Amino acid sequence: MPQLSAGQYMLVYNTFSLAIAAMLGSFVFFVLSRNLVGEKYRMSLILSSLVVGIAGYHYIRIFNSWDHAYTLMDGVANPTGTPFNDAYRYVDWLLTVPLLLAELVLVLRLPKKDGTPMLWKLVIAATAMILLGYPGEISSDMGTRFIWGTLSSIPFVYILYVLWIELGRSLPSQPEPVQKLVKNIRLLTLATWGFYPITYCLPYFGINPSDSVVGIQMGYAIADILAKCGYGVMIYNIAKLKTEADNAASAAA
Ligand code: RET
Fold first, then answer.
1. What 3-state class would DSSP assign to 212?
2. Domain count for the chain
3. How much is the pLDDT for 114?
4. Is residue 251 part of a domain?
5. If you take atom 5 of ligand 1, which residue's CA is the nearest one?
6. For the chain, first and last CA: distance in Å?
């Protein structure tokens, strides 16, 4: 771990603290709002609660690991020799990314013959993406980082293909307002998920190692807040709109 200024150290420290607050706050929101949507959509909200609950726990561990990795003295943060543990983040993704994908596929309530294979493809690709990214993340060798990063990008591109092309085919069968939300959530997915590989590439942008460490930790934490809490709120909106559309249809019948 490189030496950091006190300001850099605190910036990451406070971002992790914000992430814990966002995850725990979202957990309460998703648990309470479960009863505001139709029964068919509750599983998506349960999955949202699980995602932010798991992430809240991991951010507490990440925060403590950061705390133990540095000591602040005379305006400088010196590495203590205890390594910062990146595994918490990757294990978190391993658990939460498949859950996020399941949320999306479930809330759409696609016919089983389309939804189940699509979910399997997405989950397998997401697992491969994360497993392939980890050896690069923990390597201090730029060449190794590059190779694993490139390998990890292959399943990433495949996920985008499935979300754009295959999910696109299911859109016409969805109610009009839901179509718009699904398009938005796809864009949010691209915008937030796209943030992760860009953050991973920070060490290649010619910035010094301390800025790189700070940028990577802040980038991942902010992306996590958007991809888990923001995404969960969007899923909640879809579930609510679909509940209203179902109620209107049954009232008309
Ligand atoms: C890595 C390695 C470099 C190449 C790529 C990556 C992609 C990571 C992504 C992570 C998404 C995480 C989410 C977490 C939310 O819970 C592994 C950084 C493509 C897309 C959505």
1. helix
2. 1
3. 79
4. no
5. 197
6. 65
